[in-house]
Structures are given as C-alpha cells and as structure tokens.
Design brief:
The protein is mainly alpha-helical and about 280 residues long. About 70% of the residues lie in helices and about 0% in strands. It has one domain.
Length: about 280
C-alpha cells in the first residue's frame, strides 16, 4: 500500500496542474516534490499515481478546447465517408494529431520499464532541466514564426510527435520539447503551443489509463487519486489560459533561468550528498 495522504495528493495535484503545460517539466517537478514528501519515487504505485493525476490536467485541455475538439472530430468523422470534407483543415488536423501521437505511443510502451525505473532519478531531472534549456534558447533564436496554425502539415506533426518522445525523460518537459520543435519548424508560438496541447491529449490519457492497473495493483488510495486529479484539473485549466496569453507576446526562453537554477541546485545538492537521487 502506497501511503499518500489527501494533503500530499492535493499538493501533487497543484504541482501537476501548474507544470504540465509550462515548459518546466511536470514529471521533474513531481519527482522533486515526491522526494521532499518522503515518498519512494521509484515505487510503481507512486509512478502510477503521478501518471493518473495527469488525466486531470488533460481533462482541463479537453474542456478548454472542447468546441475546437468537437469541430475537429466531427470533420474527421464526416471526412471518412464524404470526400468533399477531406480538403478541410479540421479533417487534416485530426489526422495530424493521430499520426503525431503514434511515436510516443510506441516509444512509451517499449521504454516503459526504463521510464518508471532508472530515469526516475533526481540526477536525470537536474541534468535534463539544464540541458534542454539550451535547446529552448536555440529554438527561440532560430524561430522565424512565419507560419500560423492553418499552415500546419503532416511533417510538422510527425516531427513534433517524435520530439515529444524525448520528454519521456523527466526534466525535459513535454511542452518545452514540442513547442521548441514547432518553433524550429517555423510555426509561431501560439500555433506551436496549440498543437502541443492537442498532441498531449492522447499521450497523457494513454499514460494514465496504462498506469491505472498499477495503481489498483499497488492499492493506491482511491480518495488520494480523486483529490490529486481534481486539483490538477482546476489548476491546469488556469495554467492553459495563462500560457496561451503569455506565448502570444513572450518568448519561452523566459522559463530558462528558472530551469537552470533549479537544475543546478539539484545537481549541487546531489553531488554534496545532501539529498539522494531516488
């Protein structure tokens, strides 16, 4: 039995909701906070709890973009039987999300033991926070932002979907990786961020459902799961609204100093033996 109190679940829900869509790494932050709470970060039950409360954040994306999602899904369904719909952007965008989600589905399944085992280390989190910051700076420097959302194509989706796999490493940040890839493909920040949100839906829902059996098998408290997920939903919804407004006028490089300071502090504390990696 993994003993996660309701207060701990609520705190982890706040952390998940705040960091899931900001380019600072939700898994990295959850790993740090779980360690501070004295939870075994390499335990299957804790890993499952982390993945399941992400569903709260993804539910926030679905609610926030519900009108867009219904329109896109409707176009996709109609396009399967009506040829004249297949030329619309919504129909094509639905396929972009489907194809862009395949890489992380395959890699996430094949590397599941690595992700929940050796990679659940604060050494990995600290180094990844610092290392990917350089990629984010490079992406912003090279960004042309000449393309809006309706210029998105299948190559963009496949490239960004493949880069999303890198974010399976704690500390890199799924949004940081996908937005950076979108910028390097010439998309503007809002277009890259919106595509990042849509690609997150199948990825995080799949991870949550896959880990559900481990949560049940490890007898994780159902009440703790409910609290963590609900809190995650509420906080994530506010974070989504804020981030879309932020990237319309600001560079994602604004998050780099925080990432580097946090990553550097982790590495120093680990090297000094003040904290342990797992």
């Amino acid at each position: 039995m993994v003993d996660i109190s309701l207060a701990q679940a609520a705190l982890l829900g706040v952390v998940e909701g705040l960091t899931e869509f900001l380019p600072v790494s939700s898994t990295g932050h959850l790993t740090i906070v779980e360690k501070m709470l004295g939870l075994p970060i390499d335990d299957d039950g804790v890993t499952a709890f982390t993945a399941i409360i992400q569903v709260g954040a993804i539910a926030a994306v679905i609610v926030y973009f519900l009108k867009d999602i219904l329109r896109i899904v409707s176009a996709w369904g109609r396009g399967l039987v009506r040829a004249e719909v297949r030329g619309t952007f919504d129909y094509r965008f639905a396929w972009f999300v489907i194809w862009g989600s395949l890489p992380i589905a395959v890699v996430g399944f094949l590397a599941r033991d690595l992700i929940s085992g050796p990679l659940r280390s604060l050494w990995v989190v600290g180094i990844a926070l610092i290392a990917w910051s350089a990629v984010m700076l490079y992406a912003e420097k090279r960004a042309t932002q000449t393309r809006g959302e309706r210029t998105t194509n299948i190559t963009d989706a496949l490239v960004i979907g493949a880069v999303q796999c890198i974010a399976l490493v704690p500390g890199i940040s799924r949004s940081g990786a996908t937005i950076s890839a979108g910028l390097l493909r010439g998309l503007d920040r809002v277009a890259a961020t919106r595509l990042s949100f849509f690609l997150s839906i199948p990825a995080l829902v799949g991870a949550g459902l896959f880990e559900l059996k481990d949560a049940v098998g490890q007898h994780v408290s159902v009440s703790a799961l409910i609290v963590g997920t609900v809190v995650s939903f509420v906080v994530a919804y506010a974070s989504i609204a804020w981030l879309l407004r932020f990237v319309a006028h600001h560079s994602i490089a604004a998050f780099v100093p925080y990432r580097v300071v946090l990553g550097g502090a982790l590495v120093i504390l680990l090297a000094a033996g003040v904290i342990t990696a797992t």
